[in-house]
Design brief:
Structural class: alpha+beta
Strand content: 15-25%
Number of helices: 5
Order of helices and strands: HHEHEHEEH
Helix content: 40-55%
CATH topology of the largest domain: Alpha-Beta Plaits
Radius of gyration: 47 Å
Largest sheet: 4 strands, antiparallel
Shape: rod-shaped
Number of strands: 4
CATH class of the largest domain: Alpha Beta
Distance between the termini: 131 Å
Length: 236
C-alpha cells in the first residue's frame, strides 16, 4: 500500500527551521548564562583580592609604623645608655673592678674577703664651722669657691668590708695597708669577733673606709693595680 503524505514540504521545512532556531536560542541562552556567571565570579574574586590587598597594605603600614617606633626607641635607648655611662663615670671616679683589685692586693696572708658594700651619700653640711681668724676665713672662702661641684661629683663613697682573718694581727695589718692606699681614707674597724669554722677559730671583722674624692688614676696606675691582682683569685 502506498503512503501518501498530504503535508506540504514547505510546512515541514518551516517546522524544522523553528526547532533549529529554538535549539540555537536555547544554546545562546546557556552560553550567555555561563558567561554572565563567569563574569560575576570574576568580579567577586576581584573584590576579594582587593579586600585582601587593602588588608595587606594596612598591615604593612602598621608594621612600617612599628619599625619606625622601634628605631626611635633604639635611638632613645642608645642616648639613655650614653647618659647612664656618663653619669656612672661621674658617680664612680674609680671603676669598681679597680677598687676591688686594690682591696684584694692589700690582703695579708690568710685573710679573705666575705662581703663588700659600696654606698654613695651626700657629704655632711659643714657650713656651721666656726672661723677664728681673718686668714682662716679667707682660706674657707677659697676652698668654698673650689668646691662648687655638681651634686654627682660631691657624693661620698662609703666602703663596708667584711672578711675573715686568722687573728687580729692580720686585721690590724690589713687596716694599715688600706690606710696607706692611694684610693682609701678614714679606714676604721667596726667589729672583730671570734668565729668558729669546723675545728678552727678565725676572726670575723668588719671595716669601713671612704673613697678619696680627689683620686685621679692614670693608665699606668690602672695597669699596675690589675697586674698585681692577676695573682689573686679575682680576674679583672
Amino acid at each position: 500500500m502506498v503512503n501518501i503524505n498530504f503535508v506540504p514540504d514547505d510546512y515541514i521545512q518551516n517546522n524544522e527551521s523553528k526547532r533549529t532556531n529554538l535549539m540555537y536560542l536555547i544554546l545562546l541562552v546557556v552560553v550567555m548564562t555561563a558567561l554572565g556567571g563567569s563574569f560575576v565570579t570574576i568580579k567577586i574574586r576581584q573584590r576579594a583580592c582587593r579586600a585582601k590587598e587593602n588588608l595587606i597594605n594596612t598591615r604593612m603600614a602598621k608594621m612600617h609604623e612599628a619599625i619606625q617606633q622601634f628605631d626611635e626607641l633604639q635611638v632613645k635607648k642608645r642616648a639613655m645608655m650614653k647618659t647612664a655611662l656618663t653619669t656612672a663615670e661621674l658617680l664612680e671616679p674609680v671603676p669598681r673592678s679597680i677598687l676591688l683589685a686594690s682591696l684584694t692586693n692589700n690582703l695579708p696572708s690568710g685573710v679573705s674577703l666575705v662581703n663588700l658594700t659600696l654606698l654613695q651619700k651626700e657629704p655632711k653640711n659643714s657650713s656651721h664651722v666656726s672661723v677664728s681668724s681673718k686668714y682662716k676665713a679667707t682660706q674657707a672662702e677659697k676652698n668654698a669657691g673650689q668646691s662648687r661641684l655638681s651634686p654627682e661629683q660631691m657624693l661620698e663613697t662609703l666602703i663596708e668590708i667584711e672578711g675573715m682573718a686568722p687573728s687580729d694581727l692580720q686585721v690590724a695589718s690589713y687596716i694599715e695597708r688600706l690606710s696607706n692606699s692611694t684610693l682609701m681614707d678614714n679606714v676604721a674597724l667596726v667589729e672583730s669577733k671570734e668565729h668558729k669554722i669546723d675545728d678552727g677559730t678565725f676572726r670575723q671583722f668588719k671595716l669601713t673606709a671612704m673613697l678619696k674624692n680627689d683620686v685621679h688614676l692614670t693608665k699606668n696606675d690602672v695597669e699596675t693595680i690589675r697586674k698585681k691582682a692577676e695573682g689573686t683569685i679575682w680576674n679583672f
